[in-house]
Amino acid sequence: MRPDNLTAYTRRIMLASLITLALLTACSTPRITDPNARNYVPSPGSQVTVKQRIEVPGGQTRIFLQRGEIVNRLSQVDLYKPNCNFEVNTLQESPRYIEPGVYTVTRTTRQEKEVTLQHTNHIKLAALGFGVMARGGDGGPMLFEEVKMRLQSSQPSDIRELACRGVMTDPVLVEAPTLAEIREALGSHASISVPEE
């Protein structure tokens, strides 16, 4: 390689490195530690207390809660209001129960999901990949942000996680549910306490 070509090559490598660094820095957001903040996510160590026995119907692994009420199926959930669901590991034909007790959050994740309303009453959910947004239905996508909290109990339990979603809205307006919205969705069935309070 001639010296002038080497310099141009070195500049391109440096520019590509700077762009990569800028993209990685832009994608890592600082963790919000104020429980009253809009995009706060309950941290590991938070505790979810199930106050009364909750039935998971046969043939399902999730039971939904919205406005403090139990909703048996996703098709009955109002996606324009915050909602949560408990999920168990095992699918069975007979009903199972989430027993009262304290469950510790061991991991939390956030993810935007696209909702495509089809011709029937069926709802199709598709997780969005990094930087990818698919168009579907008759217009642009509608999204909600979901916070998943992996749960662990000191007692034997089939419970896997508590997942809570913010309202379904346009991509530029999508936000995670607030801690107050999570508590409202759970109602008297369960509560959540976070280390930051």
Explain the layout of strands and helices.
Elements: H1 3-27, E1 47-50, E2 54-56, E3 62-66, E4 69-71, E5 83-88, E6 96-98, E7 101-117, E8 123-127, E9 142-152, E10 159-165, H2 179-186, E11 190-193
What does this 3D model show about the protein?
The structure is a single chain. This protein is an alpha+beta fold. The chain folds into 2 domains: 1-30; 39-193, no CATH class. Helices cover 17% and strands 35% of the residues. It contains 2 helices and 11 strands, in the order αββββββββββαβ. It has helices at 3-27, 179-186; strands spanning 47-50, 54-56, 62-66, 69-71, 83-88, 96-98, 101-117, 123-127, 142-152, 159-165, 190-193. Strands 1, 3, 4, 5, 7, 8, 9, 10 and 11 form a 9-stranded antiparallel β-sheet that branches. Strands 2-6 form a two-stranded antiparallel sheet. The chain is globular and about 70 Å long. It starts with a helix and ends with a strand.
Give the topology string: H per helix, E per strand. HEEEEEEEEEEHE
Count all strands and give the number. 11
Q: Characterize the largest beta sheet: strand count, sense, and whether it forms a barrel.
A: 9 strands, antiparallel
Strand percentage, roughly? Answer: 25-35%
| Low-confidence spans | 118-138
The percent of residues in helical segments reads 10-25%
- SS element count, helices: 2
Beginning-to-end CA distance, first to last residue: 62 Å
Give the structural class: alpha+beta
Number of structural domains: 2
Radius of gyration: 21 Å
* Anisotropy-based shape: globular
Overall residue-averaged pLDDT value: 80
